[in-house]
Amino acid sequence: MLEFIIISTLNGVTYGLLLFMVSAGLTLIFGMMGVLNFAHASFYMLGAYIAYSITRTIDFWIGLLVAPLLVGLLGMLVERYLLRRVHRYGHAHELLLTFGLAFIFEELIKLFYGDFPVNYSMPAYLRFPAFSLFGADYPFYRLFIGLVAIGMFVLLYILLSRTRVGLVVRAAERLPSMAEALGHNVPLVFMGVFGVGAALAGLGGAVAGAFFPTNPNMALELGVIVFVVVVVGGLGSIEGSLVASLMIGVFSSFAVGLNWSLARLLDLVGLGDWARELGGLMTLTLSSISGTVPFLLMLIVLLVRPAGLFGERN
Amino acid sequence: MARVWQLLLFVLIMAVLIGLPPLLGAGLQNAMTNMLIAALFAMAFNLLMGQGGMLSFGHAAFYGVGAFAVMHLMTAIDRGGLSFPTPLLPLAGAAAGLLVGLVTGWFATLRSGVYFALVTLALAEMLHSLAPHWEGLFGGEAGISSMRMPWGGFIFGQVIEIYYLTLIWVTLSIGLLYAYTRTPFGRLTLALRDNEERVRFMGYDAHATKMIVFAVSATFAGIAGGLLAVSNEQANYELFGTHVSAQVVLHTFVGGSTVFFGPAIGAAIFTLFAYLVSDVSRSWLLYQGVIFVLVMLYAPLGIGGVVMLHLRHWASIPWQRMVGPYAGATAATLLMAIGTVMVVEFLEALFSPHYVAQRRQAETSWPAFERFGASWEPFGILTWGPPLLLLIVGLLILLRLRHRIVALWDEVQETAETAARSGA
Asked: Which of the listed CATH numbers 1.10.3470, 3.90.1070, 1.20.140, 3.30.1300 matches domain B18-281?
């Protein structure tokens, strides 16, 4: 049992930190521009594929460095030449545009790399166990993913709260027209934030793609979970998305190994056999519905407290 | 006069829908059945989006629920013991859609805007992730399949029978949806979209109204799903998938959400094209995405919206001066489309596993590849020159004509404004 708890917690925390890397940009962009970016998880996927291409032709570390930059650049272009065009038609149109872009990115990846996973993996010298627990080796690379995410969070936090650039960004988020009146180039700030958000997602993809499978579905699979994280943490709140990422990450890794069900819960009050006879929802185990619970959580948060755990505004 | 034209157009469309299919093969008949279903689904979606102003990203939920309800009823009939007329099977879809729509609608309409979209997304994703594990209700990963029973002299064994059954249901449903817009409640729905606060001030319960609109939309989405189940005789959890919700959004906005029949136009065009093109090209979904983004960027009102704009200003459009630029722009768009398709298909051929294997065999050199019934050199000027030339020429023509068309439309707007002012 202890083994299960420790391993699950470690896996959960690293997965949660990965979720955070992608959701940080999404929540930042929403908080600032009010745009729910459906293409955000596509940036994660593009990061992984670009890093894969660079790794294959040049080197893993260069891929890790260049992929986020390229994805960030793409993000800036998307904001400057596409999103800004439809801004006057309202938020629904911006959202629909990013939705269409997500569609195009996925199909482009399929066009160039095919429908099946590509063989993107870390260099052999990173493939060593960090430590041994209960006779099983724990891969160093999982810790590496977590460390990159933590490093990113610290950097982002310092940038936003301790520098002049961060001050302007926060001002543009709060009161865009006032920041503009004071002589700051708010559209440029928006473009920059969009680019940085995309680059963070790209970095997440470049780092995680080498450990988890890199395939054309990765954007869709992660995308919906990232929405859950951002909503639960509070749209626009970075601290919130960190906490929610960890929560969802730890929950997912624990749920996979648990066979609790409503029937077993009812055993406690002696109604277990009745529940098992009913079947259906009653006998579904937690491990088989581990994919469903995050959405249930998201739904509850949306209905009870739409501002999320840490959000301030609705 | 306008009414006569509308009636004529309606009769023409119905004549084609009734008269054409018997002349076609089973494949096309099936494609037309799917087209009708997609059209109804998009119209149901647009009752919520275009008229109620609520953007749902989880309409697959009701579509799927409708399909599963019909499958359960069909199974019950097939196993005997229950006699139920086969043509009325979609009623089960409607009932399920209504029920689920009422319950989820109560929750979802507590929120608006982006939060509403997220609630619907979460609902559909919940079903999508739950269905493969819930053997009893959704048949696990394989889903449920069953058989249609003959009824009242109809065997329902041929595609054409199913087509006509679908046509009747879809015509009836769209007719009801149209009648809905004419009722006072339909007007209230529009008011809800335009100014919810004012609706509340007038004494209406905005939340209850939204909930009912949501449930009606879900009911018709359930009928669409039910028709799909009748046609396919099977349903599985993928009906709840994100791509189903995505397709209906694409259809609706390309067709135009501000026009009543817009979504049906979008759905018809996309499903028929998908059928015709999917055999020839693997990149159909890419083209679909590109078309959607282009519509969002340059014609945010969709195809229907553009048509309506022209109809509204028909009399004041200077057609003699407009025909030239329009013809030129159409030709230029065609050139660019051909150029794009060539580039995409060439890339597809070059990056296909087939070609990669060919290259491995040829070792150092780059062998020619086959496409459009001809052979092309991977680095040849004759391969990349023509499509790039088409793209550049088309773009230059479009950029030139754009100014002229915009100037002409400014004139049209001006005449319309002066007319409105002198009339007032």
From this structure: 1.10.3470
Per-domain residue ranges of chain B: 18-281, 313-423
What distance in Å separates the CA atoms of residue A83 and residue A75, rounded to the nearest whole number?
A: 10
Beta-carbon pairs below 8 A across chains A and B:
114
Residue with the bigger pLDDT between A92 and A263: it is A92
Would you state the pLDDT for residue A275?
67
pLDDT of residue B336: 92
So what's the pLDDT on residue A314?
Answer: 44
pLDDT-flagged residues of chain B (< 50):
none
- Average pLDDT along chain A: 85
Residue of chain B with shortest Cα separation from A82: B297
Q: What is the pLDDT of residues B164-182, one digit of tens each?
A: 999 999 999 999 999 999 9
- 3-class DSSP assignment, residue B145: strand
B226: closest CA among B79, B373, B98, B399? B98
Query: Which two structure tokens, joined as six digits, stand for A142?
Result: 């999982």
Out of A114, A280, A292, the one facing B353 most closely (by C-beta) is A114
Calculate how close chain B gets to A135, using CA atoms only, in Å: 33
Distance from C-alpha of B208 to C-alpha of B92, rounded to nearest angstrom = 24
Q: Burial-class residue A77 by CB neighbours within 10 Å (0-12, 13-18, 19+).
A: middle
Contacts of B119 in chain A (CB under 8 A): 299, 302-303
- Closest chain A residue to B354 measured between Cα atoms? A114
Task: Give me the CATH topology for the region A2-259.
Answer: ABC transporter involved in vitamin B12 uptake, BtuC (1.10.3470)
CB contact under 8 A, A93 and B296: yes
List chain A domain ranges.
2-259
